[in-house]
Design a protein that fits this description.
This protein has 344 residues and is α/β, with parallel strands linked by helices. The protein contains 7 helices and 27 strands. Helix 1 runs antiparallel to helix 2 and helix 2 packs antiparallel against helix 3. The structure holds coenzyme A (COA).
Amino acid sequence: MTTSLFSIAFGVGTQNRQGNWLEVFYARPLLAPSTELVAKVSEVLGYTGGNQAIAISNNQAAKLADALKGVDAAQSALLTRLAESHRPLVATLLAEDAALSSTPEAYLKLHLLSHRLVKPHGVNLTGIFPLLPNVAWTNQGAIDLAELAERQLEARLKGELLEVISVDKFPKMADYVVPSGVRIADTARVRLGAYIGEGTTVMHEGFVNFNAGTEGPGMIEGRVSAGVFVGKGSDLGGGCSTMGTLSGGGNIVISVGEGCLIGANAGIGIPLGDRCTVEAGLYVTAGTKVALLDDQSNLVKVVKGRDLAGQSDLLFRRNSQTGAVECKTNRTAIELNEALHAHN
Ligand SMILES: CC(C)(COP(=O)(O)OP(=O)(O)OC[C@H]1O[C@@H](n2cnc3c(N)ncnc32)[C@H](O)[C@@H]1OP(=O)(O)O)[C@@H](O)C(=O)NCCC(=O)NCCS
């Protein structure tokens, strides 16, 4: 019998009329649960190993609550609540961090990221897209797109409005978890699976994709694309862009170090080290030819953006007279505005 697991979580979710999962909410996902907890759960559910999403009845939830009483009070209390559910329940057990094989598993891994139990790139998300159904996220919860028209009519006939908030594979993170110490001005801009570190502010123009995020503290007014991780004390200016790797051929994984400033409407197609600044409006790609300047602003040599990937203390700017992209030593690395960050 398996006694150590990668992760376990008990969830309540939504299924379509065919009984396929549309989404799962895990209130308290666990990473590396105790062997004692795993043993008790295995006994109740007859689990013998592997990665499994086991549909459980209210009765089984009550039994699990009982079995975990002396082992994990928080999980036991959660299961007591789940035992009263009118919605479908699931116990998801992951023996190992393997490629995904079910919708409840995919949702568990997105929860692990947003609960800050794993960092971006810290969990295997292979195969995620086909396992996340495209769903209408409404004020009445998740609805299968094939069932939406009927539900809209039903609502209208009762004099109600079924509001469709988005149509997407990923829901808003904040509908599943709001991690401590963050501000998110527009919750629609942060997807489940984002990792939003303590002390992060995401302003209305900011966006954070899944498997991406911030170490915190930080100010995000630009796009943090899938796979991008931003170090502490960094500021992404209004409307700026970090290049993603999901589409369009970019294959360098982008990251932003600590204490960086990406100016308004600027962008990066290379990873930045610590204390780097990119001038407002300048997009530095891997192939951009960059003139390296010394302290007296004399040309040292011309390199490509990718040659500077991950290096610290750089200031990138476009010379406003010649149009050439230049790189100098960054002497005035930013400090985040304390007054803006002290109140999360
Ligand atoms: C690139 C940047 C950091 C430079 O700012 P700075 O370090 O304060 O530099 P300064 O503006 O004081 O300029 C220093 C010198 O370089 C010159 N200079 C600045 N940018 C230049 C450019 N693009 N081309 C040519 N010269 C430039 C200045 O004219 C000044 O010249 P001087 O020494 O003759 O007076 C700044 O222009 C910038 O883009 N900041 C981003 C701010 C931002 O977008 N924040 C997010 C808000 S949402």
